[in-house]
Structure formats: C-alpha cells, structure tokens
Specification:
The chain is an alpha/beta fold. The strands form nine sheets. Strands 12-13-16-19-22-23-24-25 form an eight-stranded parallel barrel. Strands 4-3-7-11-10 form a five-stranded antiparallel beta sheet. The protein has a five-stranded antiparallel beta sheet with strand order 26-27-28-32-30. Helix 9 crosses helix 10 and helix 13 packs parallel to helix 14. The longest helix is centred in the last third of the chain and has 20 residues. It is elongated, with a radius of gyration of 27 Å.
Amino acid sequence: MNTGHPYPLGATPSPQGVNFALVAPNATKVELCLFDSSGKHEQQRLALPACTDGVWHGQLSSGRAGLIYGYRVHGPWSPRDGHRFNPAKVLLDPYARAINGRYGGEEIFAGHDARDATQPDRRDNASVALKACVAAPLPTAPAGRARIAASERVLYEAHVRGHTRLHPSVPEALRGSYAGLAQPAVLDHLQRLGVTTLSLMPVQHRADEQRLLGMGLSNYWGYNTIGWFAPELRYWSGQVGTTPASEFRAMSDAVHARGMELVIDVVYNHSAETDELGPTLSMRGIDNALYYHLRPDDRALYENWTGCGNCLKLDEPRVVQLVMDSLRYWVTEFGVDGFRFDLAPVLGRDAVTGFDRRAPFFAAVAQDPVLSRVLLIAEPWDIGPGGYQLGAFPSGWLEWNDRYRDTQRGFWVRQGRDGSAGLGDFAHRFTASSEQFRHDARAPTASVNFVTAHDGFTLRDVVSYDERHNLANGESNRDGTSHNMSRNCGVEGPSDDLAVRAERTRLQRVLLATLLLSQGTPMLLAGDDLGHTQQGNNNAYCQDSELTWLDWAAADASLAPFIARLTALRRESPALRNAHWWLAGDAASAGVHWLRPDAQPMTAADWQGTALAIRFDPLPGAAAGEGMRLVLVNSGAAPVDFRLPEGTWRGCLATDPAQDESVASQPLPASVRVAPASLWIART
C-alpha cells in the first residue's frame, strides 16, 4: 500500500486502485480492514501509511469498486478528555457511498464496557459492524433541470416507503421503494394536484435506536442518520442490475422529467450514535472530540441540543467539510434540487455564543458555487438554549412556519375555544408573516406555510381527534405533543354521523384553501389529499405499518380534485402568489385591501370579529384583463352576508360543498351569504 493522497476524503476508485482518506487528527494509528463479499469475514488489515494535516491516507493498487472495508482507529481511551478510541470496533467511513450490514442494537457495538463505562469494551465486532463499500461514481446529473419560480412552488412532503406501500397501481415488487415512487401513476397524481416540488423525508442511511429495536419497532421517519452519502438500503427494490444509488438516481430523473423539483430531508444535527451510552458505529470511534459537541464540564458527556443524545460540531471546519461534501454529492451525483434541514439551529451553534446566522456552515453554503443555488429549507427550532429561531436564518433560506400552522388551526378549528385565533393573526399569517420574515431582503416566499406535516396529526385527524392516541409507540401515550389545536367535531375518532362527517369535510377544505391562497410557499402533507388517518397518533415516527402507509384504496375521492382546483387558481393569478411584500393598501394604491362584510375598509374595532373580505388588486405589469381577486372569510359559527365591492364578480370556489356547485364559475349578485367556517373565492 502506497501513501496515496489526503484528498478527496473517503474511498475514491481510479485506474490506479482505490485511495482511502480519513480525518482523525487525534488518532495514533488507523488500520484499513478489508472484508469478503459478505462483509462478515475480515481478510486483511493494512495500516494507512501516511497522515497529512490530520488526514490518514493510503492507496491500495489492487482495490476496485465493490470492495468492502472498515477502519480500526487507535488512540487514547479517555472519555473524560473526549477520546473514545477502541480498535476492537470496526468503524464505518463517514464518507461511505454504500453501506454493508445493518445495526441491530447488539451490545457488542458499544465502545464502552457495559459494567464500567469508564473502560473500553474489548470484544471484537468485525462480523456485525457496519462497513463501507467502494462505489463507482454514477454519471453526472443532467444539467439544465427545471427550476421552479419561488412564487409558483408548491411543496409536497412524502415518505418513500409509506407513499407507495399500498398503492394499487404500483407493481407489488416496487411498492415502498425509490422505484415505486418513480412509477407513472404516482407522478401523474402529483402533477394533477399541482405539486411542483416533491420533498422526501430522510433517505440517507439510518441506524435505528436500540430502544426501538428492543420493542420490535424502527425509526420509520428516518431521523437517525449514520451514512450521509449513502441512500437508505431499505427503500431499494432490489431489482437485478440496480443498486440503491442507481435506483434513487433513476427516481430523481423521473421526477425531473415531469418538470418537478426534488428536495430531501437531511439530518446533520446529530448522528445515530446517540449519547455516551450509545453504540460506537463511526465518528465516535474515529475521533469523538473532533466530531461532537462535548460538555465543557465533563467531556465524557455530550451536549444534547437535539434531544437525540448528541450534536455534530458544526463550528469545526472538518465537520463543516463533511456536511458540505455530502450535500454537494447529493446535488451532483443524485440530482437533488434542495434540502430541508432537520433541527437547523444546530447548524449555526457553538458552545459559547449559541445560534449565529453568520456561523461557518451558513457562510460556507453562501459562497459555494453549487449549494448556493439550491433550495435551502430550515426547520428553525431545536431544544437548546434560544432554540426557537423562526425568521432568523440567512437571506435566501426558507423556513417551516409553525406559527402559521397554529394560527390557521386556531382560526378555523378552535374558534370559540381555547387556542382560538383572531382576524389580525389570521391576516398576518395569510400574508407571509412579515414580522418574522420582512427583513434583510428576505421575500414572502421564505415562509413555508403548512397546516400539517409528518410530525403531528394528519389533516383528517386534526378534525377527528381532541387527544393524541400514541399507545402503539410503547411510551404509555406520553410521547408526542398535547398541543394539537384540533377538534373532533363531537366524536373522538371515526364516525358514521352524517353531520359530523360533513363538518369534518368543511374544515378540511377550508384549511386546504387557506393554505393554498396564502402568500408564501405552501406545503402539503402526503395523504391529506386522500383523507389519510393515523388513528390519532401524532408522533408515528416508529410506525412502519398500515397506520402510516397511505391507504389509496380508501381515499376520499373528493379531496384531490379540490386541491387541484386550488393550485390552478393559484397558478392563474399572480396576485394570489405574490413574491413581493404587499403595500399597505388603500383606495389609491395597488395592494391588498381588508374589507368588512359590508365592503367598507376595516377599522380597528372590526378586527375583533370572525369575518372579512380580502380584495387583491392586479400586480403592477399584470396582463390586460387580469382583474381583481376576492376572498370572503367567515370562521364563525353562523352564516355571514357579504356585500361585494364594486365590479362584476364571478365565483371561483366555495369551500362548503353545499355552496360550491352554485358558486363556481357563476356570476355573483351584489350580496352573498357565506356558510359558517368557510370561504369563497371570486374574480372580476
């Protein structure tokens, strides 16, 4: 084995063999371990012959793609000093492009002795350890993929497995896989809905928590990454002639062929190695003090701003490099168009100043010629000090807006109850939450508006349950939030009562309409277009079962066409998807106008009610004949009579099904009656 090169990191095949490079500046020795094709039998150990600037490296001239390998890293065992080197444990390369094996929660993965955590566990775990597989590069992703204009983007959050596991039009062998998601029937449905951007829950290789494995469960959502370059093996169909990587890439290409974008949810805030009692799978054994935030008072313990046991040390240049290389790889190799960052404040944290929007990671992304051009979406909260950072991310980033969710549920679902929201809050969120986002040249589209997401009730459950029902998770119903902002409409769970079902239908439709008419970037949750229920489970992270798999056969057939009408209305009217902040609006200026039901301008006292009309003027430079748009809002329990503003108005849509048929595409009289908890859309 010759010295090779310290760059690029990971295992890089070439005609000269395979170059191996691993960052471990505190190590004293690194051994490359080669395995047979099963990955179970270690056949050779080779010391990496060189270390340059903390990077251990060497080139194996006989190496080829397909070679299975791991590392044994030597150094001090001194947890109080942050060091947990243990060469008895074979370690996964953080740059692994493909992964052999699966963590099953075995105790032998522990780097520490179970009887005395201050001592190392000397048992060798080579036969079961996660290993990397040298992967040949895929062809370069096609250039010139369609980019969706910010004002036209409609996000759709989905789970690879759950989306097609029960899909009747997907071949059985492909259900629950990347290939299944790429099937024409699946993509046809998304296009009919008006979705522009498919946002997938985590697809990077994960290791399930030992606690879940002991209960026969798994981390279904996937927020427990251990391989940031490798697609999750469990979502591969196993078709002959494919690999997880090639199948993911084919799915990406299929999405792009429809003119849509592909976003993936990524977890760079913590790793699957959890806390000081967790397994030693990769970075903990490679160089624990380099990769993780450790407690300053006791470096045997980890900072836990994530609630998952550890935090990656994103103020360390080598860790920033790892994340940047991973992100760039998913863009250039797999054709991904953007990322949603889980617990994103961790990306900008250090142990001294807390969150900083000018932190090293954000600076690195802003100047990167690849990553500065992709879609960047933050989940703007973690559980560390000052962890709620809605609106605080850099210009160009989008952020999940949970205050939008709570306000719209409070306005439509909780009216007259605890947690209800008023007209002022509704209007503020309806026009993109300027208090949070109108600064530093940020656009209204920075607000990702949603009423449901993977975390929490589905839309159907928001109107079917008052309480969470999470017993299946094995935590005595203590997990998941109790702050659901929901309403069961008189019956907890399923009901055959026609009045209850009608009310639930009205509420689902008005929430969907509000979402897709609001200024900002709307996000739909997969399954809400079908009326999917999780039977009141608002934290189904560990439920890989029919509870979470979308039941296409039992879909509410009325919801998808209704959503398609809403996205069409949004596309047709620039005013309903304005990418610029609205002017204050008065009789003489273009903008948005807030009117009482009698068509007069709102006064301060009027904002205490539950009904208003919103008139949108055409945007400057609009096409001739564009006309005005009008949204009539009534969140109260009684019908409201609205006098329409001057002009000839034609109805577009009413969220109450009983009124919709008589409103859609019909000329409207000077005064109309809007049903309780519903809205109308009209145009001139």
